[in-house]
């Protein structure tokens, strides 16, 4: 009896360990495969050059540039909006009100919407409705903003990543000790001043965590930008908000599905994937560095 | 001498539970009023009703009149932020905000939009809180890294930066060692020449040392209030006598 229990327990331990091991193996296989195959072509010319001869040669600089600008624009849009929404939800709203429940329900649903639906939403709402409206109002109907472009693509991504930022920010607002708020109120702070001078500075770390998660998510999505601004191939870099752009994820998709010569593009494909991974890591790492710096300053100054 | 603050018929509830029953109490100008009583007697609720900190508690409701310079502080229409600038408060636990000593002290004036003469006021309030000599060379050091006693004196100095007319202290020495405690008590004796102090304390000895008059609360009622000597030598009520002689509480 006891030996059977021991065997069963040993088996259970082995199974859970195996499950954990599979995770590591998958990551190693994916990253290893990409690194080994992508390393060869990785050169300065590849990173800084333009695609040539039907994307079977040359570099991917326009796609790198487009991805970075896209993610930056998305961050600029999603962080203020998400932080403001979280501050309202946590600091101002009456928690039992219908509207708050509605907002929370909307956030949960937003987080569950498939990425491709965001793409279609962006096309309908941003490109056609908003862009069309702007063109009618300010450009006399001339086609200016009623077309897929980097502005609409980044705003579509911002909506996709909004729940991430709101949830992370609210979590960090909740972590600010109540007694800090009371101390500020006792010094004659108004509600707004308590939020601005005490609550927000003490939740910067959590807000940046939300930003990091949003960047990781946003930099990897293809579906939301397919109809809203990403271009198959562009001979120039986006120079204004209503230009189209190339993006690494979309470029990978295009090279996989639309290439005239799959074998010729394969090495390029590997290297592009490697660059996308490295770029995402780099963006993340920068955000982590900023957060570490902020936390250090909060602690020591 | 007419009273500075006159509390009339003050009752308070936390949810459905009544925690203050019809309190009548006058606070004189330039006195230190000690407020004593066992845990749950309503001391803190009473203190926090004076600067309307109870408003922050969604479940707390009060009723009654707190007359101060011709206005009723319990009136819903009162500007609570302005009131709290005139009624400084120190909490039971030291609450240094993350940031330097200087930043902590500058916060109150900054909230009110005043920035002039800050350096001079920092020195004078730190001196008044008996902390200047210990921190004068390191005002940019992190406030949370001070010792507990120093933190509490910093909180006292931070409250004084607002140049309040009344100082509300909620068991300010409950977690402090005897030396820090006596420093704070010394500071209070100096301060009462230009402001009025309400000192809630769990320490009966502190009330007898530091206060001019003592109010004894029990079960949400003000049992009696009188000169410190009278309360300690010749209390009118048996409850008071039992509490200060350590029979309960």
Q: Mind explaining what this structure looks like?
A:
The complex is a heterodimer of chains A (301) and B (249). Chain A has 301 residues and is an all-alpha fold. Chain A has a single domain (40-300), classed as MetI-like fold. Chain A is built from eleven helices and two strands. A two-stranded antiparallel ribbon of chain A has the order 1-2. Chain B is α/β, with parallel strands linked by helices. Chain B has a single domain (30-57, 79-244), classed as 3-Layer(aba) Sandwich (Rossmann fold). In chain B, 35% of the residues lie in helices and 26% in strands. Chain B is built from ten helices and ten strands. In chain B, the strands form two sheets. A six-stranded mixed sheet of chain B has the order 6-7-8-3-9-10, with helices on both faces. A four-stranded antiparallel sheet of chain B has the order 2-1-4-5, with helices on one face. Chain B is globular and about 50 Å long. Chain B starts with a strand and ends in a 5-residue tail after the last helix. The mean pLDDT of chain B is 92. The chains are: A mainly alpha (301), B alpha/beta (249). At the A-B interface, helix 7, helix 8 and helix 11 of A face helix 2, helix 3 and helix 6 of B.
Give the arrangement of secondary structure elements.
The complex is a heterodimer of chains A (301) and B (249).
Chain A: H1 2-39, H2 44-48, E1 51-52, E2 57-58, H3 61-92, H4 98-112, H5 115-138, H6 150-174, H7 178-186, H8 191-220, H9 223-226, H10 248-258, H11 262-300
Antiparallel strand pairs in A: 1-2
Helix pairs in contact in A: 1-11, 3-6, 3-8, 4-6, 5-6, 6-8, 7-8, 8-11, 10-11
Chain B: E1 5-14, E2 17-27, E3 32-36, H1 43-50, E4 60-68, E5 71-72, H2 80-86, E6 87-90, H3 101-111, H4 118-128, H5 132-135, H6 148-160, E7 166-170, H7 178-191, E8 196-200, H8 204-210, E9 213-218, E10 221-227, H9 228-233, H10 238-244
Parallel strand pairs in B: 3-8, 3-9, 6-7, 7-8
Antiparallel strand pairs in B: 1-2, 1-4, 4-5, 9-10
Helix pairs in contact in B: 3-6, 4-6
């Amino acid at each position: 009896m006891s030996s059977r229990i021991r065997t069963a327990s040993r088996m259970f331990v082995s199974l859970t360990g195996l499950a954990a091991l599979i995770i590591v193996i998958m990551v190693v296989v994916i990253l290893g495969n990409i690194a080994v195959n992508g390393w060869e072509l990785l050169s300065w010319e590849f990173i800084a050059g333009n695609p040539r001869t039907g994307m079977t040669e040359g570099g991917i600089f326009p796609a790198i540039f487009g991805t970075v600008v896209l993610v930056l624009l998305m961050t600029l849009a999603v962080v203020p909006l998400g932080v403001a929404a979280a501050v309202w939800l946590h600091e101002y709203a009456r928690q039992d009100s219908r509207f708050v429940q509605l907002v929370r329900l909307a956030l949960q649903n937003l987080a569950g919407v498939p990425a491709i639906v965001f793409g279609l939403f962006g096309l309908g709402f941003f490109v056609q409705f908003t862009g069309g409206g702007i063109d009618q109002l300010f450009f006399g109907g001339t086609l200016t903003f009623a077309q897929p472009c980097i502005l609409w693509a980044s705003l579509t991504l911002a909506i996709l990543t909004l729940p991430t930022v709101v949830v992370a920010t609210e979590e960090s607002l909740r972590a600010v000790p109540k007694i800090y708020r009371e101390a500020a109120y006792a010094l004659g702070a108004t509600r707004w001043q308590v939020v601005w001078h005490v609550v927000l500075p003490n939740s910067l770390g959590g807000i940046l965590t939300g930003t990091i998660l949003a960047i990781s998510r946003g930099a990897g999505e293809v579906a939301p930008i397919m109809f809203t601004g990403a271009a198959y191939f562009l001979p120039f870099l986006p120079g204004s908000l209503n230009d189209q752009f190339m993006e690494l994820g979309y470029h990978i998709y295009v090279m996989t599905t639309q290439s005239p010569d799959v074998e010729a593009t394969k090495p390029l494909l590997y290297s592009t994937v490697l660059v996308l991974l490295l770029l995402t890591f780099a963006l993340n790492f920068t955000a982590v560095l900023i957060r570490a710096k902020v936390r250090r300053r909060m602690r020591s100054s | 001498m007419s009273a500075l603050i006159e509390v009339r018929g003050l009752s308070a509830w936390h949810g459905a539970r009544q925690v203050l029953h019809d309190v009548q109490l006058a606070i004189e100008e330039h006195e230190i009023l000690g407020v004593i009583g066992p845990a749950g007697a309503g001391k803190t609720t009473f203190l926090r009703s004076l600067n309307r900190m109870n408003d922050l508690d969604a479940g707390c409701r009060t009723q009654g009149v707190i007359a101060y310079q011709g206005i009723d502080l319990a009136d819903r229409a009162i500007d609570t932020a302005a009131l709290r600038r005139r009624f400084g408060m120190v909490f039971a636990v030291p609450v240094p905000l993350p940031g330097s000593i200087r930043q902590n002290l500058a916060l109150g004036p900054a909230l009110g939009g005043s920035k002039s003469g800050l350096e001079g006021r920092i020195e004078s309030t730190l001196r008044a809180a008996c902390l200047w000599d210990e921190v004068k060379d390191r005002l940019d050091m992190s406030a949370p890294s001070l010792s507990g006693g120093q933190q509490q004196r910093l909180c006292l100095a931070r409250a004084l930066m607002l140049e309040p007319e009344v100082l509300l202290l909620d068991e300010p020495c409950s977690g402090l060692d005897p030396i820090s405690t006596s420093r704070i008590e010394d500071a209070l004796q100096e301060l009462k020449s230009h402001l009025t102090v309400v000192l809630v304390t769990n320490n009966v000895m502190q009330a007898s040392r530091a206060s001019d008059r003592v109010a004894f609360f029990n079960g949400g009622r003000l049992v009696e209030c009188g000169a410190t000597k009278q309360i300690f030598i010749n209390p009118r009520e048996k409850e008071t006598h039992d509490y200060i002689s350590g029979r309960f509480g």
